[in-house]
Amino acid sequence: MHDRQSRLSKPSRANSRRGTILVVVLVVVVLLTLTAAHYSSWVTTEYEAAAITTADVQARMLADSGADYVAALVANRADSQSNNFQHNPDLFLGINVVESQFDRARGRFTIIAPLEQDETATHIRYGLIDESAKLNLNLLDQLELDDEDSRNLLMGLPGMTEDIADAIRDWVDSDDTSREYGAESEYYETLSPAYSAKNGPLETIDELLLVKGVTPELLYGEDANRNGLLDPNEDDGEASPPYDNADGILQHGWIGYLTVYSREINLASDGSPKIDLNNGILTDLYDQLAEAFDDDVAAFVVAYRMSGPLDQNPNQPAQQAANNNQPNPAAPGAGAVTRGNPPQDLSGGAKFQIASIFELLGEFSRTTPKYVNGANNAQLDTPWPNKNDVAKILPELLDKTTLSADPYLEGRININQARREVLVGLPSMTEEIVDAILASQPVDQDGQPVTDVIESHSTTGWLYTEGLVSIWTMREIDPFITAHGDVYRAQILGFFDGGGPVSRIEVIVDGTEIPPRVVFHRDLDALGRGYSRQQISPQQ
User: Could you identify which of 8, 133, 286, 395 might form a hypothetical disulfide with 418, taking C-beta atoms 3.0 to 4.6 angstroms apart as the criterion?
Assistant: First the structure.
């Protein structure tokens, strides 16, 4: 019986071992399954992360493509099909870079800007920001203005004081002598940490934070994301950053009015040298003008350079060049050099510099040529006596001639895009003129720039030809203004049609370089997209 019981117990122990093995196997299978599931999830997550990273990189590359695109456009800005950089959706909205049948893979960039003339800060345009629409701080010391006029250039900025204006001027000038309200190294070396005044040009506008009295609030204003638009969080008081006064008006901050980059290239549109109307060699000047225009133009300009103006501003006391009434020689003397018919004696050389090309224009512009045939005080009138003549000749005259032999013209303000705060500080600029300029800037009732007006305002002459200012006022303000610059700022957004990441950068392209060069590049992704997808995407 014992043997029988022993035989019966053996299968039970075997079954027990098999059950234990089955449980172990099941546990192992479960663990392997969980491991596989976890690995699969990890791989999926890593794949998605890699895809997101790839999309981020691609969006940045799309935006960077926009920077190269801007440089190429600026290089070819003489092309009549592409010279409207102020508002041109065909050139700047939704430019396709990567084509695909799938929306998520179709990549584009858009170049967008706020509308400077829009006081509500709610309108946009598709174009570039002309740095010449801003005041160039690095040129304050080079404008040959008296102390008060130089300070007034800055006083139109919101929150500006005489103390800060003089401190800024002291920071960028070349000496260590404090102005009346300013500060130099003697002040900055008492700070902790101590540092010296720059006494040289700014490298970026952000450097102003080192200047006495300048605060981030003054420099950057309420525009937290740097898009130039009044966003909800910028008009809600203390409810959300940044702090603002909830007055419905965007305080742009000085960064919207100041620059360190503006200048214009001093070449004709075809890349050839311009004719310097202040050339001291009058024979060369005459020959160049006669070839580019005609003998009448050449005769008038060289006569003006020798004898100065006969015109008299009716709003000022009589002013006449000291040698205007001096007799001319009856015949050319020894070594006399003549040009024109009747011949002028150019051997006396130039005695007058032209400060504004508008000195040569208008019904009162006249001079006394030095003829060699004995005629004294024979009046010579301008070839362009009326506004119609001026309107016709200005584009060609400004394209072919200059008043300086310098390769660049720096610091002039683009009146077609400048904001009020910049215009009011210019010498001889009155509130009435500023109002008239702003009212005539190329914007329609919906806040969009008007192409036809942009084209008609291709030179500063529209101030005179449209009756905003007299010829006398035009001569006074002309040295400080321009209709365009050659250095451009662009905000560029790279994106995909089907959604996903959007990359935003800001670049400055210097068109006075040949070829144009990106001189500034800033990543704005940390500040957010800045614009909605509806604003940056082309209409389908």
Answer: 133
